[in-house]
Specification:
heterodimer, A: 366 residues, mainly alpha, two-stranded antiparallel sheet, two-stranded antiparallel ribbon, 5% strand, elongated, B: 105 residues, alpha+beta, Arc Repressor Mutant, subunit A, 4 helices, 18% strand
Chain lengths: 366, 105
């Protein structure tokens, strides 16, 4: 029997369904569609097409969410992430305090901020004296402590407070000089978005505490170091660094002097960064870290990596140089859409009630 | 329970039916008000099978086309009965109050 044009078009529509559904029910559904077609009909109607496509999309979505819900490794990864992400944020912040951004070859770091007659260096212990940083760090420590103590609700509240504080700081002081590079702030934002999701969509820190072990920290510690090195290298090699000026403020005369810095030598940092990157990947592979956890960690790093890439590509003042300085909806979508989509998927999979598996159909058994 | 789901389960209450039979039966039960499309029907059937409210009863080949018949499971019958009783109770309450309102007006 040769296929009619209508049948061929129906089959094209049915190709949008999940593979398993098609294998079991494509012929049956085609028969129903053909039975409902008018005599002489050559193509599917508009409403019929929309109905089939909506149904196919819904089936894809519900199957993906159901798989997520029933996949123990996925829920375990979410639980693990709910513990390790807040601690990782603190690790990065503490390294930021412990390791100032000092560039070899430059007489001082190009990232200097003059405030009330004193020079504050970005990174290093001086950060603790910087306005807002101490409170932000304090909140991050509280979030991590609550997560390690398996207090899920309090962790969520502390996370919301930290994000709220970050937003207020950003909205109020968006035109001031930020002492903390924006990229690590984005890392914190992504960590908390996904961390809160992980707490809502999984057993959360109580289960995460059972699963976490020294191997996870062995992977995350060099990863935190890598964040520091990448931030430094990116800023130092960006066009921002080429035009960076050192501000010297004379409190007596109230005058500032600006001069060009020589381009810092970052080759040593590049080597350190490469070693750390290899260490992170190797340890993750050797320790066989849950691949869903790696996916979540990759999503956490996404907006950080985008920010670094853009600050390296665009000139200072360009719309793309600092995606957070004058953000448009497009900027925010670029920065946060992938982690937010993953977060929505995680929450939906958590909200979906567990369902028993369908009984095997008795048909076509020999 | 959504109306379409209720009507599909109702269509299967009298015995097993194939996909197109369910569509025509639902139209008949709802007096033409609800006209299921194939996509909507198969989304619902997929969900009902997953929830073990219906199962495949048998298959036939008619005019070179596959027909798969579905029937209610005991769990599906119980759920339909409970839902029907709930709707009946609600309807009775509404009618009773309407009668009352009509009587006192």
């Amino acid at each position: 029997m040769t296929e009619s044009a209508l049948e061929r078009r129906y089959r094209w529509l049915l190709a949008w369904y999940p593979h398993r559904f098609r294998r079991e029910q494509e012929d049956e559904m085609l028969a129903v569609l053909m039975a409902g077609a008018a005599k002489g009909q050559r193509r599917p109607g508009l409403r019929e097409t929309a109905d089939v496509l909506r149904s196919a999309l819904g089936m894809h979505l519900s199957r993906a969410l159901r798989l997520g819900r029933e996949n123990r490794r996925w829920t375990d990864a979410l639980a693990l992430f709910s513990v390790v992400a807040p601690v990782f944020v603190v690790m990065v912040a503490l390294l930021e305090v412990a390791l100032p951004y000092h560039l070899p070859g430059a007489d001082r770091s190009p990232f200097l901020f003059q405030r009330q007659g004193s020079v504050t260096q970005i990174g290093g212990l001086s950060l603790l004296n910087a306005p807002f940083f101490d409170v932000a760090l304090g909140l991050q420590v509280i979030v991590a402590a609550f997560a390690l103590l398996s207090w899920r609700r309090l962790t969520l509240i502390a996370m919301a407070s930290s994000v709220g504080y970050w937003i207020v700081y950003w909205v109020v002081f968006r035109y001031g000089i930020s002492q903390v590079p924006d990229a690590p702030q984005l890392l914190t934002a992504s960590a908390y978005i996904l961390g809160a999701t992980a707490m809502l969509a999984s057993p959360g820190p109580p289960r995460g505490r059972q699963l976490v072990n020294w191997r996870h920290w062995a992977v995350l510690l060099p990863a935190a170091g890598l964040v520091q090195v990448l931030t430094l290298v990116s800023y130092a090699s960006s066009r921002f660094a080429e035009t960076a000026t050192l501000i010297r403020y004379d409190a007596a005369t109230r005058t500032s002097t600006w001069r060009m810095l020589k381009q810092p030598d970052i080759s040593g940092y590049l080597v350190i960064g490469a070693v750390l990157a290899v260490a992170v990947i190797s340890l993750a592979l050797v320790f066989k870290v849950n691949r869903y956890l790696l996916l979540l960690l990759a999503a956490m790093f996404y907006s950080y990596a985008i920010q670094l890439a853009f600050s390296g590509i665009f000139r200072p003042g360009d719309v793309g140089a600092d995606l957070l300085r004058m953000p448009t909806p497009g900027h925010l979508a670029l920065l946060f859409a992938p982690p937010l989509l993953l977060a929505c998927g995680g929450i939906l999979s958590g909200l979906l009630p567990p369902r028993p598996r369908a009984a095997t159909p008795p048909g076509r058994q020999v | 329970m959504q109306e379409a789901t209720f009507l599909i389960l109702t269509a299967l209450a009298a015995g097993s039916q194939h996909g197109y039979g369910i569509i025509t039966d639902v139209a008949q039960i709802s007096q033409g008000r609800v006209r299921l499309r194939a996509g909507t029907l198969y989304t619902a059937l997929d969900r009902l099978r997953t929830d073990e409210l219906i199962v495949v009863d048998r298959e036939e080949i008619v005019e070179n086309r596959l027909r798969r018949y579905y029937r209610l499971t005991p769990k599906g019958s119980d759920l339909l009965a409970a839902e029907a009783a709930r709707l009946q109770a609600n309807a009775a309450a509404a009618l009773s109050r309407l009668d009352l309102a009509g009587g006192t007006a």
